[in-house]
Amino acid sequence: MGIAVSPEIHPQVAEFIDKPRPMLINGKWVQAASGKTFPTYNPATGEVLAKIAEGDREDIERAVRAASKAFEGPWSRMTASERGRLMWKLADLIDAHNEEFGYLESLDNGKPLTIAKAADVPLASELFRYMAGWATKLEGNTIPLSVPYTPGAQYLAYTLREPVGVVGQIIPWNFPLLMAAWKLGPALATGCTVVLKPAEQTPLSALRLGELICEAGFSDGVVNIVTGYGETAGAALAAHPDVDKVAFTGSTEVGKLIVHAAAGNLKKVTLELGGKSPNVVFKDADLEVAIPGSASAIFFNHGQCCCAGSRLYVEKSIYDQVVEGVAAQAKKIRVGSGLDPKTQMGPLVSTEQLDRVCGYLEAGFAEGAKAVVGGHKAGDRGYFVEPTVLVDTTENMKVVKEEIFGPVVAAMPFSDPEEIIPRANDSTYGLAAAVWTKDIDKAHRMAAQLRAGTVWINCYNIFDAALPFGGYKQSGWGREMGHDVLNNYTQTKAVCARIG
Length: 500
Ligand code: NAI
Ligand code: MG
Known about the structure:
This protein is α/β, with parallel strands linked by helices. It contains 17 helices and 25 strands.
């Protein structure tokens, strides 16, 4: 079944996708309780790539039970050093299977194999290594007390940082393996147990990661992976009364549903949601860097990045030059199947995303936007869209206000550096922003005033396991990565002893 397995496909990958993939519950690979499966597609061809177990409420139930048992059992008795070592081992296993993960990501998501191998996979292994180091460094404090109503008494007071418990993690399809790593890393470092629900569009790499988790030697039930749809498996996980925390990455719309679902047992919630990030180019920028940087800010991962630089603001005197430059970059991008080593941009992930992006393009044209390059679907099969630069756009247009999540940037001129801050901040989102200038005072003044969780200066899309990432406003709650993320997975216990 599946696509015709061409000789270029990595043999282990061909074998992996050849039979219906089961999911991981309590250390065992099992089919869904209902026996159902669902298809995942190859976005370069639109053909079915593999069949996956379709988990639902009952499978979530079993997985949560396994995670609860593991949390109380061997996992909680393991030392922090042992947890860290397992994570380091997992990181090494991921690197050892770089090629295989590259193929899985490329086939399932559509992204270029070369990029998956150079970025997604090593970023995932590095995340586990960085978080492995934190396992042994989660410390509380000792706290001097001065209780006024017990004069003369002495106390020893200290805090413990404890894992929150069973965590539900729901991830999207734009960086399937990396999003799994961002979520699992801090949970495992802090001693939580997990039920992970990958996106239905791209479940393959998480399932392969599950096999490596077993191979590394994590105890049964520490990581459970339930594949299935959001409305069923995802919703059941978000609402489950024995889940202590839910971490979600995806659309702002579903983020709000997660908050409602979490209200039943008031589980802790962190959210990493959408964006409409402003990318601001000043006339004193080094355009040799700013032009390709602004192109890659939007076109990287086909624009399917929550932090994509989708609103390009350019100072008037250089506006034409920058727009032409970004358009020239767009024209040069080789669009094609992710498996072709020459491909720089693959297809969008799904037919839904293709329709959504094309719908935005039509809405933009209807409102008066013009495409200086691109503007259409590309190819006669698969979910390809041309890299697109829109001009004649204004802030009230749908293409400027809403997240498109495709390779489409709206360019707009500005004349006064003072005017740009309110325009850049005029968004319900606040995930990322960038400024391009050689004036360091201006760069840091802008960084202070932009209402965004990340501000890049003379660069874009720079990610590191040590650097916190997350949103202001409706872009989310909490931060991923860095030591910030550990707060999401731990809770503080105050211990107070009378000692005299
Ligand atoms: P989505 O938010 O529906 O999907 C993300 C994850 O949530 C998937 O695992 C999905 O199965 C799950 N999910 C869906 N409905 C759920 C529910 N009711 N309860 C629990 N889990 C649920 O995103 P979708 O539909 O794939 O993409 C739509 C738009 O969302 C994109 O066009 C883009 O604008 C945005 N998006 C943002 C991402 C980000 O990185 N912040 C990633 C993916 C999408
Ligand atoms: Mg959806």
